Amino acid sequence: MNIDAIRHQTVTCSCGHKFCFKCGEEAHGPALCEQVKEWNKKAMDESETNNWITANTQNCPKCDSAIEKNGGCNHMTCKHCGHDYCWMCRKDWKGHNDFYNCARFEKKTKKSAKSVKGKKSKLDKDLQLALEKQEHRMRLERYLHYYNQFMQHEKLALSNAKLREEIQRKVFEWKENDGTMAEIRFIEKALSVLQESRRALKWAYVRLYFYDDKNIRKNLFEFVKDDLDTSASQLHDYLHAAPFRKVEIVDVTRLCETRLSNLLTSSQDLDG
Questions:
Q1: CA distance 41 to 33
Q2: Which DSSP symbol is given to 116?
Q3: Are 183 and 250 within 8 A, CB to CB?
Q4: Where would I find the H helices in the chain?
Q5: Would 197 disulfide with which of 19, 101, 158, 232, CB 3.0-4.6 Å?
C-alpha cells in the first residue's frame, strides 16, 4: 500500500476510480477530509458571493441604490439618480481634487487616531466601513487565488484523460508494428503517475487555503508542490512528443513519484 493510501485511506475501485474510504469523496491527498467538505460547501453556498458584493458595491449616499465599482477612478456616478460622489469618502465629487487616491480618506485616518476614546462619529463609521470592505476584498481575493488554481489543475486532470485516449491510439499502432507489451508498460505507468500528480496538485491548493499565510511551514509545502508541478508538466510534454522517448519518460516518471511522495509527507508537517 502506498503512502497516499495509508494516510488518506484511498482505495481503488475495479473500474480504476480512486476515492477516499473515510469520506467517500475522490482521492484528495494532501487535503484532509474536513477541508474537502468545507471547500465543497464554500463553493456551493453564497458566502463568497456575499463577500464580493460587500467588497465591490455600496449604496448611493443620495438615493441608497446599490452601485458596483469595477476598478479605476474613485469618482462614482449613480445610474439611478445621477449623483456624483467619491467611493472612498462618500462625499460630493464637486470640489474633490484627487481622481485616483482619495486624500480625504488619509486625513480621516489621522483624525480618527486623535479622536476621544469611545466617541462615536460619522467619521469613525466611514472609516470602519472602508476597513471592513477592504477586509472583505482581501478575503475574496485570497479565496479566488486558490479557487482559480484548483480549477486550473482540474482542467489539466481532464486533459490527462484526453491524453490517455491519444496515447492508446499510438500504442495500438505500436502493437500493430510488432511492439511488445513490455515496451509499452512504461507508458501506462507514466500516465498513472501523471494522473495522481495532477490530482494531488489540485487538492494541494485546498490544503493551502485553510492554513494561515504566516505559517512558515507552508513555504516548504509550496516549494515541494512547485517541484511536483514542474515534473508533471515535463512528463506531460514527453508523453505528447512523438516518437516516445523512453529513457526520459521513465526518469521523469520516477521523479514525479518521488516528489508526489514528498508532497504528501510535507503536508503532515502543516499539522505540527
A1: 12
A2: P
A3: no
A4: 3-8, 33-44, 47-56, 103-113, 122-176, 181-209, 217-240, 246-269
A5: 232
State how far the alpha carbon of 107 is from the alpha carbons of 131, 217, 253, in Å: 15, 39, 59
Can 89 be counted among the known catalytic residues? no
- Mode of pairing for the β-strands spanning 84-86 and 18-20: unpaired
Q: Give the pLDDT confidence score for residue 249 in this predicted structure.
A: 93
Q: Which of 255, 251, 197, 264 is nearest to 229 (CA)?
A: 197
Each residue's pLDDT tens digit, 79-89: 889 998 887 67
CB atoms < 10 A from the CB of 130, how many? 19
**CA pair distance 185, 270, nearest whole angstrom:** 36
pLDDT in tens, 20-42: 888 888 888 899 999 999 999 88
Q: State the pTM of this model.
A: 0.67
Collect all residues with Cβ–Cβ distance below 8 Å to 182 and sequence separation of at least 6.
Answer: none
Crossing angle, helix 122-176 and helix 47-56, to 10 degrees?
130
Q: For the segment 126-163, what is each residue's pLDDT rounded down to a tens digit? A: 777 777 777 877 888 888 888 888 888 888 877 777 77
